[in-house]
Amino acid sequence: MTPAPPTRSLGKVGGIDRVFVVGAGIMGRGIAAQAALAGYPVDLADVRRELADAGAEGARALLRDGAARGRWTEAAAADAAARLRAVDGLGAAEEADLVIEAAPEQLDVKRRLFAELERRARTTAILATNTSSLPIREIGRELRSSDRLLGLHFFNPVLRMPLVELIRGASTRPDVAAAARRFAEGLGKTVVESNDTPGFVTTRALGVLLNEAVEMLESGVATRDDIDAAYRLGFHHPMGPFELADLVGLDTALAILDVLYDGFHDPKYRARPLLRSMVAAGKLGRKSGEGFYRYPASPPGSGEGKAA
After folding, report:
1. How confident is residue 14, by pLDDT bands cut at 50, 70 and 90?
2. For 84-137, what is each residue's pLDDT tens digit?
3. What would be the CATH architecture of the domain defined by 203-288?
4. Which one of 100, 120, 216, 234 has the largest count of C-beta atoms within 10 Å of its C-beta?
5. Within a 10 A sphere around the Cβ of 241, how many other Cβ atoms?
6. 19-194: which CATH number, 3.50.50.60, 3.40.30.10, 3.20.20.70, 3.40.50.720?
7. Of 128, 147, 137, which is closest to residue 27 (Cα–Cα)?
8. Enclosing H/E stretch for 99
């Protein structure tokens, strides 16, 4: 079902009419497509214009694919696609009511981005990060207006996953959090809130799950396929841990484990050697064509592909 169109909120913060997504990779294009489907004009940027263009086309491909599968109408997909615009640089922040950062999971990258976004965005704009593991307080440590920064953690694939994790930083204002919750719920998502701790709820659990699965594979407890099947059928998970790691990206999974280990200094979060060696070899999962599985080429933005 297509989410309801956006509704304006009264008050100084929270009247969200235009969205700016920074980062046009798998997550950014999914968030952009979801917001456009809900009726928002969406600008999408990346470090180079050609990446933004590819991300926007990928978002439109996701919308067409959803229509082909009967999740929404072709007319809804076409209308949403028309609301998507690839842009150069960060200038679109000046027009946005909500800025969502979907850059790589690197603290220095996110800090630099938000420093620039804070300078460009209107003072009433909400600043949101799609981080899956980095504490909001660390991302916003050098901001003057960290009270309008919070975490909105979407899940991949965005158009199919019903959950958004909302994380308030130490200084996030209640009206900012309330407006962000209304936005996410307006997209048709269920919102859960987490305290500002490394990994929050979902990623913290995922880190342990994946690390344990890799350790079992390393030590010969079971094969890749049997471990994935055991998780799917024994726990009713839609994917096994290796299938999920390939979807998330092994480099992202490794970065998450490093954040968790640095934050808690608990050995259960110390990334297994096999995972590190695969990332070093460029075996990053679906996005590189090989991770724990190998994948044939698929259309840009489709997010599909059969594991081998």
Report:
1. low
2. 999 999 999 999 999 999 999 999 999 999 999 999 999 999 999 999 999 999
3. Orthogonal Bundle (1.10)
4. 100
5. 25
6. 3.40.50.720
7. 128
8. strand 98-101
